Amino acid sequence: MAGHGTDAHPHGADRLCESGNRVYSRAVRRGRVPRADAAPVPCLLELALLHPDPDDMDWLVPTSPQEVMTRLLRGVHEEVGASQARVGAAVAAVEWYAGLGGREQGSAEGVAIRVLDGLPRIRAAMDEATERCTREVLTVQPGGIRREDELSEGLHRALEMRRRGVRMRDLYTHVARHGQGLHTYMELMGEAAEARTLDEVPERLILFDRTVAFIPANPDRTIALELRHPALIDYLVTIFERLWRLAIPLTSPLPETGIDGITHRERSIAALLAEGHQDAVVAERLGISVRTCRAHIARLSETLGAASRTQLGVRIAQAGLDGPSQAPELLPLTARAQEPPVGL
């Protein structure tokens, strides 16, 4: 999180030191504290948790906890957006470099970037990576509810990896929670797999043993890139880990919006509308149909008393729905589920 204290107190507002926590809590309870009490904890002033009382400069008054929470949530929202933007930029760069690579030379293991043209080649390469995987699989699965036939296609591969002791972690959109197939896999995979969800995730990614990754190279996913360059792999792992930390475990409930009549999904839609996105873009990013998206927008308008899209935008801002709803890293970290890597 943004903001750090002095060398003696190197932290942000999301993890106060013990002395800072004590002084700030006292200031909130009493409404202010003497400036001398805050001298041992300059981090509170540097993080703008305390500021001078305009009526008496010998006293410090606290920033309200609600305002501090808003700052933290805004930072989380910006971090997720920046991470997703970097993933998109990396994919575009990889495609460009792949175009300069010329013909493949040597074995697949010796090629940093390999273009897989056609579903048979993609499946064959992923089957080989699955067979060689011995430790870990990381995946990002965008879109909404996955069809059960898609999930069951690769069940035998997932169970075989589980037998070999391979650990699996998946990132999905929140919409995927509503698919029974995913929860069936959660039961079948047991302790071998874990899943978390976000409002939206970047494009599909499957990464084996932190040595080889597969990403789509065209919109319909009939062409894929097989990546083995260590720098690219490290980059993708870093992005995955950051998103994983921000995601909500599958078995944990989604956070309440704090506003009666507005669901978590509707809050996510409101935030994207506030950024200026069209209905189709909002639907794609959240993994829902345009029709479902517009039904939610209609309910938002009714709940907020908006008679037009322009008025809805104003109401969204007034209600504070133009930002994130809750910091995911503050939620319990327990959930298990897995979709086996059956293809891009």
From TrEMBL:
Domain HTH luxR-type residue range list: 255-320
Cited PROSITE patterns: HTH_LUXR_2
InterPro entries: Sig_transdc_resp-reg_C-effctor, TrmB-like, Tscrpt_reg_LuxR_C, WH-like_DNA-bd_sf
Gene3D superfamilies per the UniProt record, alphabetical: Winged helix-like DNA-binding domain superfamily/Winged helix DNA-binding domain
Domain of life: Bacteria
Protein name in the entry: LuxR C-terminal-related transcriptional regulator
